UniProtKB/TrEMBL annotation:
Pfam families, sorted: DUF763 (PF05559)
Domain of life: Bacteria
Protein's name according to its UniProt entry: DUF763 domain-containing protein
InterPro entries membership: DUF763
Species of the source: Prolixibacter denitrificans
Length: 405
């Protein structure tokens, strides 16, 4: 059994504003429905257990592209969005942050009763994954979030996160049932975090004898003790730098959206009439839906779909976000009744990007100019950040009015 992945992220505090959270729920549901419609529920588990895909997904949804808050907000939005339609989708989301994580056993037993799955075994699995990451793997991170995602056939994925107050970092752990054969011998599909130096990892294959009595695996190199998992290391800087993105891939998207190259392709007739910013957004959304694992090594690129709530690379362009949500929702709705043209156009968009990339030559010197231009134009497209909300609160206080909430 192996983890599917791990991510190290700067520890950020604060809340997601309601104007963004509601959009995250809508877009998160639409993307999930599109994946399930095209590839099935188990493929969604594979995606969410990949730390690179997860980080890219969170960036597309408008979260800070590199921070620990992606985990909490994405899993919270997915739980609220997917569970009301869980029977239709065949996907259930349990647990969450803090007190919500402690309700996971109760939620799993309830799902077991509804679906005929073995609830007691699911509860045992949930507790074991948490125990492994909190106790058997002593890497300095204390778990505060545990999310358990399962399908109607009993396959599951776990996304959980711990914090280290000593270095202000968070570490996210990913599990996938199809990669698990043992809970104590290399169980993780991936783990994401900064290298903390020497750690005690009783889940390492090399620690088999230690588990039998010789508890000295802390001397092992963590790079050797957690092999073959996908690891993400997010930088501490907030701004998106040219070194954070694959310029060939991002440049192809921008060229297609802004230089009207897509007009040459009859396959994309249904996308004509959309503005360039919405085309840029849908191009990145199409990758999240249809892209292979190799497409997500630069999660920062996906923050160019709608922007980020911290203003990086530019404020969240809410009108663009809303148009993308509407297009994707309509595509999913039509596909359910057999009208697949819109859904197919999104996939064709993804396929076209891959083809255009082969001959595209990026110009990194345009990167900063592009971001500057997007920031200037953001207000006209409903650009918002969490800092705007704070300014409004301060203005109300200056006017002598108090905020109740």
């Amino acid at each position: 059994m192996k983890r599917s992945g791990q991510a190290d992220l700067p520890l950020h505090y604060g809340r997601v504003p309601s104007w963004l959270y509601e959009r995250m729920r809508a877009m998160g549901l639409a993307i999930t429905e599109a994946i399930v419609e095209e590839y099935g529920p188990d493929e969604f588990l594979r995606r969410i257990s990949d730390p690179f895909w997860f980080q890219s997904f969170g960036a597309v949804l408008g979260m800070d592209w590199h921070s620990s808050g992606i985990t909490t907000s994405v899993m919270g939005a997915l739980k609220h969005a997917l569970n009301p339609v869980s029977q239709e989708l065949g996907i259930y989301v349990c647990g969450g942050r803090g007190k919500h994580s402690r309700k996971t056993p109760e939620e799993l037993l309830h799902i077991g009763d509804r679906t005929g799955l073995n609830g007691d075994e699911l509860v045992r699995t949930s507790k074991l994954t948490a125990k492994v990451d909190n106790t058997a793997l002593q890497d300095g991170f204390q778990l505060y979030l545990h999310s358990f995602i399962l399908t109607q056939n009993g396959n599951w994925a776990v996304v959980q996160q711990g914090m280290n107050d000593g270095n202000n970092m968070a570490r996210r752990y990913h599990w996938l049932s199809e990669k698990v054969s043992s809970f104590v011998d290399e169980p993780h599909a991936s783990v994401i975090g900064h290298n903390q130096g020497l750690i005690l990892n009783l889940t390492a294959h090399e620690a088999a004898s230690s588990r039998e009595g010789i508890l000295n695996v802390g001397k092992e190199n963590p790079g050797r003790m957690l092999p073959e998992i996908r690891k993400v290391l997010m930088p501490r800087h907030h701004d998106v730098k040219v070194t954070d993105v694959d310029m060939k891939r991002l440049g192809t998207i921008l060229a297609m959206a802004y230089d009207s190259q897509f007009e040459k392709f009859d396959d994309l007739l249904l996308l004509r009439g959309l503005g360039p910013k919405t085309l840029r957004s849908l191009s990145l959304v199409s990758e999240v839906i249809h892209g292979t694992p190799s497409r997500f090594h630069d999660p920062a690129r996906f923050s160019f779909a709608h922007g980020g709530k911290d203003g990086h690379p530019f404020p969240v362009q809410t009108s663009v976000y809303d148009e993308s949500i509407h297009f994707l929702q309509d595509a999913v709705r039509r596909a359910k009744i057999g009208e697949t043209e819109k859904k197919d156009s999104i996939k064709k968009l993804s396929d076209l990007l891959f083809k255009l990339e082969k001959d595209f030559v990026p110009n990194p010197e345009k990167f900063e100019k592009y971001i500057e231009q997007e920031r200037k134009e953001s207000k006209a497209f409903g650009g918002r950040t969490v800092f705007d909300d704070k300014k409004k609160t301060r203005k109300n206080l200056d006017d002598g009015q108090l905020e109740l909430f």
